[in-house]
Description:
The complex is a heterodimer. Chain A is mainly α. Chain A has seven helices and no strands.
Amino acid sequence: xxxxxxxxxxxxxxxxxxxxxxxxxxxxxxxxxxxxxxxxxxxxxxxxxxxxxxxxxxxxxxxxxxxxxxxxxxxxxxxxxxxxxxxxxxxxxxxxxxxxxxxxxxxxxxxxxxxxxxxxxxxxxxxxxxxxxxxx
Amino acid sequence: xxxxxxxxxxxxxxxxxxxxxxxxxxxxxxxxxxxxxxxxxxxxxxxxxxxxxxxx
Lengths: 136, 56
């Protein structure tokens, strides 16, 4: 059910003010942050746990963090990894993740990390849709 | 971690995100999340049996 602008409650009004792309950018940089900015605490927490969990399992399985694009598959992997936002940059800075896949489970870990990034992008776009009123 | 727990965790996390982002009301989010989870986990089991039978 759509809510008309003149019937917004005070917290909703606060959430609707400011830079329109802020939930999108915050949601990309920190999983769930876009929803937290919009006071969707439950949804944000579930998204954060899911994406952080998936990324952490990927790192624990010694998944590869793509550092450069040497061919088309590397480029796609890097694009997926970049979807993790700050998680990717912090992990790269800390030297987490493997440079080369050396064990069988690391292949699964690599996919977990890439998919976590793609899910984070979906979550950030969802926060943007909530902010613009495209989604209730 | 073995293959099957990895599949279940993958299905769980992806289903939670799909449910929240692709539906609008909490009830429909839960239903869609469960639907996605069953499809993820179920298709993995079915494909595993198919590959097992092909490899015999």
